[in-house]
Amino acid sequence: MNAHALLTAQGWRGTGHSLHPTDDKTGLTHHILIKRNQDGSGLGSKKDHKQEAWWLNAFDQALKGIDMKSGTMKQTLKGGALEKITARNAATKYTGARGLYTSFVRGGVMEGSVNDPASFLPTPPDSGAGTPLGQEPDTKTGKREETKEERRARREAKKLKKAAKEEQREAQRRAAQKVEKKKAKKAERQAAKEKLKAGETKEERRARRDTRRRRKEEKRLMRAVSSQ
């Protein structure tokens, strides 16, 4: 969309002018400036994302509580975040029937076939297991020779396809003949009607119309009686 052309068509005076029709002091004379976020923390974020890494903070807190002044490692921190997570009566957020750690399921183990004795058994050269009989590739063309059953099935499928096409063409031909017959009958009736009109007198025409009117009225009465 050409925004410049659209605004100009609505009465804007062009670049460097505000949207006011006469006064540039009313409104902005430049486009709306967008603040660029280059800290990589995402739109709308104003806090350090490291604070959300509770597991990292828990381990960091536990490491800071280790005392090595006496020559041995001793944990001086009591009731830290890591202890709360691993404690027996920890919060249900991490343990328990609906805790976080119950969502992790140990997967199964796939056994390899390196030590399987059956994988080292060679195939006898005369067993025919590599290539079924009757399906050896032709040395000249490089294509596999089809069997009698495959050739018979291919020919049967070809015959069925040909018969279906013939049946479809026959149905189309019958439909076209039916349409032509309807057109011919309609033209014949129209010609007979025109011939009858040309040779009849006024009295005959009036009598024919009266007869047709009475026939229509009788049909209407019959339908009314049958509907009751």
From TrEMBL:
Species this chain originates from: Xylaria flabelliformis
Region (Disordered): 115-228
UniProt protein name: G-patch domain-containing protein
Coiled coil: none
Lineage: Eukaryota, Fungi, Dikarya, Ascomycota, Pezizomycotina
Ranges annotated as biased composition (Basic residues): 208-217
Position of the signal peptide: none
Record's compositionally biased regions (Basic and acidic residues): 137-153, 163-179, 187-207
